[in-house]
Amino acid sequence: MAGKIATYAALILLSALFVFPFYWMIRSSLMPKHLLNIWPPIWWPNPPVWENYVQAFSNPFLPFGKFFKNTMILEVGMITGRLISVTMIAYGFARLRAPGKNFLFLILLMTLMLPGAVLLIPKFVFFSRLGWINTFYPLIIPAWFGEAYAVFLFRQFFLSLPRELEESAIIDGANIFQIITRIIIPLSIPVYAVITIFSFRDIWNDFMGPLLYLSSLDKYTIAVGLAFFSGQYTSEPQLQMAASVVFTIPIIILFFFTQRAFVEGIQMTGLKG
Fold first, then answer.
1. Model-wide pTM > 0.85
2. Nearest Cα to 59, choosing from 223, 185, 226, 245?
3. Which of 34-43, 184-193, 216-225 has the lowest mean pLDDT?
4. Whether 141 and 161 share a structural domain
5. Range of the domain at 116
6. CA–CA distances in Å: residue 54 to residues 58, 68, 175, 255
7. How many CB atoms within 10 Å of residue 224?
8. Can you list the alpha helix ranges (DSSP code H) found in 161-236?
């Protein structure tokens, strides 16, 4: 009993530490400006100032609806391309017999060691010569050519699936496309959930990519728009907190609805080690 009490106490304490910054952000978003930094702090406003949310999203020069639409365009385009391309690539590394396959996979893993900053200038020059600057193409198109980390996770998961399932399908006359769509993908839902959640979070929070390739306000994403908003309202921290709360909620909702598949996928792909 004492061990259980200590375990639950530790879990509650750690949970409180992780939740506290989000609580403080919500609290600050509902405070009047002159009470934000007083000491001792006010732990909850009485009454809450809901007007902060109205003011944060009423600026006609900051079209947050457009920012959200642009972000969702990138989410759909990049996640779709990543899942399709990674499935094909990982299945090839896991199942197909080809000379030099392991060497190519090693090269693929080596790309994970390259710092992202090293590739910024070459990629920008390349896309600028294609005339893709200030479009979504430099962000969406590369996702359709695979992503090394996702390929690694999918390959590890595909290797854990019994080959007998595919051999039985081949005996029944199935081709590679049918094997992937009717056997591999249905059995791989947990790892798809992991990659989808990771990708959604990374795209939602990505600041450098959209900032580098997008130059007009009507093409900004939420991350860039929020930074632009913070620059406009540096003296209004309660409005910054209100906007941050609104744009943090979708990530939290996504995790709560997919947490079971997310945890299962992490266990099955070997991330737990």
1. no
2. 226
3. 34-43
4. yes
5. 55-269
6. 6, 17, 56, 27
7. 22
8. 163-171, 176-179, 185-187, 189-205, 208-213, 222-232
